[in-house]
User: Fold these one by one.
Assistant:
Number 1:
Amino acid sequence: MSREREYQEIADSINQLVGRQAVSSKKIKNVVKEAKYIRKTEGTAGLLRFATALPYQFFTPQELEYIQTTPQYRELSARLIDLLIAEGVISSFEAMFLRRQV
C-alpha cells in the first residue's frame, strides 16, 4: 500500500469513528512533518510533550474517551505507530514501548 493511501485510510477511519471530519490525510502529514522537526530539535522529551498535547488539537475530551473505548482504538494506534516508524519519527525500539502503553 502506498504511503499516501495509508494516510487517507487512517484519516477516513478516524473520521468515521468520531462521526465528523476531524482529520485529513494532509493534517496527518503535517503532524508527522512537525514531529520529525521536533524530534530533531528537541529530542525524545520534546516529541513526548508534542504527542501528549496533540490529540486535544483534533478531538474533544469526550471524543478521546470514546475513541479509547472502541475496538478500533488498538488497530488505529498500531497503524499510526507503524506510520511513525516508516516516516523515521521513531525507531522500532521506541515503538515497542509505545505499543505497550496502548
Number 2:
Amino acid sequence: MINRYSHTAIVTAEPNGRWEHGEWIEREPNEITIKGQYFPSNSGNQLKYKADGKEFTVKGEFSTKHKKIDHATHIRIGSIGLDAKIESWEQFQTHSVIYI
C-alpha cells in the first residue's frame, strides 16, 4: 500500500471589490489554511479544461475535504516548497480537488 502524507496548505482568495455609495471598494486577499494530500503530475501530459473552456496542463493535484473557495487564486504548501497558481478547483460530493 502507498503511504499518503497529509499536508497543510495556505490558499489565497482574492475576492472582487464592490460598489459602495458610488465608490469602488477593493477587498483585501484572504489566506485560508486547509489540510489535504498533494499528488504531483506523473508525466505533465494530462490536459483539463477550466469552467470557461480554456485548456491547461495539470502539474499537480491537491485533494482536500474542504469545500471549494470562490476566487481562490494561489496555493502554498510549505512542507514541500510548493508555491503555485490555482488553475482550477473542482468540487465533488465527498471532497474537492485543486489543480495546479
Number 3:
Amino acid sequence: MFETSKPSRVFWFSIILVYIFFVSAVYSLTTVPIDAFNSDNAEQLHAAIKLSTVRLVGMAIVLIGYPLVLLRYMQHAKDLTILLTFWVIAMYIDDHMVLYRMIEYPDRGLFALVQWCRPIMIVSLVWMSIELALRRSPMD
C-alpha cells in the first residue's frame, strides 16, 4: 500500500480537506464581528483578538509553505505534517479544556461549521502523517 514514492489518492483527498478547513477557518476568524464577543469583558475581547492573530499567522504560514515543502523536500514534509498534527490536536484539547470557558464564540454560521469539522481535519492530518511516515523514501 505504501511502497510507491507517490502519495495515495486518500492523501490528496486529505490534503484537500485540510486546505478547505484552513481557508474556512481563516475566513471565519477574519469575519467574526467584534460585537460577537462579550464587550463588557475586556479580558475576553483581548484574549480573543490575540489568539485569533496568532492562529491566523500560523495558518497563513502553513497554507503558503506546506505545498512548497511537500513538493521539494518529502522528508521535511513528513516532519512538518507530524508537527502540524500535534499542534492542531494540542489546540483542540486546549480549546475544549480552557478556551471555551473564557471566550464565547458564535454558535451559528461558518464559525460553528468550522468548529464542527475540526475532528475531521484532525483525522485527515493523522492519515497524512501515517502515510508519509510509512512510505518508502526514494533511496530505499
